[in-house]
Structures are given as structure tokens and as C-alpha cells.
Amino acid sequence: MIIFPAIDILNGQCVRLIQGDYNQEKVYSDSPVNMAKKWEEKGAAYIHIVDLDGAKTGDSINKSIIQDIAKSVNIPIQVGGGIRSLDIISTYLDNGVSRVIIGTAAISDPDFLKAAVKKYGDKIAVSLDARNGFVATDGWTDTSEVKALDLVKNLEKIGVKTIVYTDIAKDGMLQGPNLEEQQTINEATAMNVIASGGVTTKEDVENLQALNMYGTIIGKALYDGKLDFEDVVEAK
Does pTM surpass 0.85? Predict the structure, then answer.
């Protein structure tokens, strides 16, 4: 199982939000680039990056910082947040990003998603963020009427190979992941599923690994010192 340390970028800084609430942010570093180098030094095999400004506005506001990260580390990075055009996808992929994650646009513009998957194949992932089983969009500010399981089945038909599944209720709460929900999603699809939201302890990581998840994203627990990344990598 791949363990992805998360770097969330807001106003050019490395931050964490609680349950995706932009009014509940905590700044951890003024340099996302240095943070990426830190995770690489600690043994990360892959880094997960979110442009929070982009997720909210639809514009890739932190694009230059993300491109700097791609140039500064020797491990792959995946990027999400505001990915709503083929141009921004090609810009990222041409500048060192390994995988681009489409979120809101996967629901609001399925033709765009289909075009992206057709053109870029497995370099496209979809972020599926759920609140009470329904998909949330626009930086989690809106909840749609689309059931997460229904979307999963549609994504697989389109040809998506990887999804990031986040239970918003758990995100940033340091209360552990929703194992039942993650298992349901993982067993419903042949796609690679990356679990996100609430991973706090080594036991959480082991439990997700026991569910045969493709990967898991860890954010707040690492930044608040609740979890040591080297310990998790050794346990994996």
C-alpha cells in the first residue's frame, strides 16, 4: 500500500483544514516545496498535493508552486484542486507531475472527464469526496444528489483507473478512517482506491492495508505529530 503524505496549499502556504472548512485552517509551513523535500527525505514514495485555492475557485492559482515541487523532488507527485481543463492537465503533466486528480468536474462536466481519460489514460485520477454517502463538490462547499457508489460504477465504465475516496466527516478530525465505507467502495470496484480522511495511527494504516487498499493519504496526523511518517513506512 502506498502511503501519501498530503500537502494542501492555500495562499501559497502549506495548511490543513478541518472537514474542508476554509474558515478552519492551520498554517504549517510557508514553503510547500521544503515540505515536499522533507517527506521525500523521510521515505515517502509518492506525494499527494491539493491546490485548495484551485478547488474553491476553479483556477490553478498555486500552479507555479506545484511545478516547483515537481522539479524539487525525485519521487512522483499527484495533484488535485481546480483541474477543469485539458490545458491545465497537460501543463502539469508536461512539468513533472505524474498524476492529475479531477474532482468537481468529474460530476459537473463528465464529457471533460471522458476526454481527459481518453487522452491521458491512467495519469488521470478522480477525487471522490463523500458526505453521508453523497458526493461533495466545489472544495466540499456543496453536496450533490449523486450517490458515491453510483459514481464509482460510472467512473469505472469511463475507464478511470484510480480514485481518491474521502469521507469528509472524518477528514482532519483525527478520529480514524471510516473503514466500513472504505471497504464498501474498494470491494465495489476494480479501480485503485486511495483512502483519505481521518488516518491518525499506525493501526489505522494497518487496518486499511488489511482491506487491500491501493493507498492511503495522511495529512493532519503527520503535521500535528500524532503519527511519525518513518514509523508508518517501516510498518507498511
Answer: yes
Q: Which residues are catalytic?
A: 8, 129
Tell me, what DSSP letter sits at residue 26? Answer: E
pLDDT at 169 over 90: no
What rounded mean pLDDT belongs to the chain?
Answer: 90
Helices (H), 42-193: 52-57, 63-72, 86-94, 105-108, 110-120, 148-158, 179-187
Model confidence pLDDT, tens digit, residues 155-165 = 999 999 999 99
Strand residues in the chain grouped as ranges (E): 2-10, 13-18, 21-29, 47-51, 77-80, 99-102, 124-131, 134-137, 142-147, 162-167, 192-196, 215-218
Q: Beta partners for 14?
A: 9, 29
What gap in Å lies between CA 60 and CA 79, rounded to an integer? 11
Taken in order of first residue, the domains within the chain and their CATH numbers are 2-235 (3.20.20.70)
Q: How far apart are CA 236 and CA 223, in angstroms?
A: 19
Beta-carbon-side half-sphere exposure of residue 176 (alpha carbons within 13 Å): 10
Neighbours of 231 (CB within 10 A): 12
pLDDT band at residue 170 using 50, 70 and 90 as cut-offs: low
Cα–Cα–Cα angle for 117, 122, 138, nearest 5°?
A: 60
Cell matching residue 127: 477525487
CA-closest candidate to residue 15, choices 172, 165, 227: 172
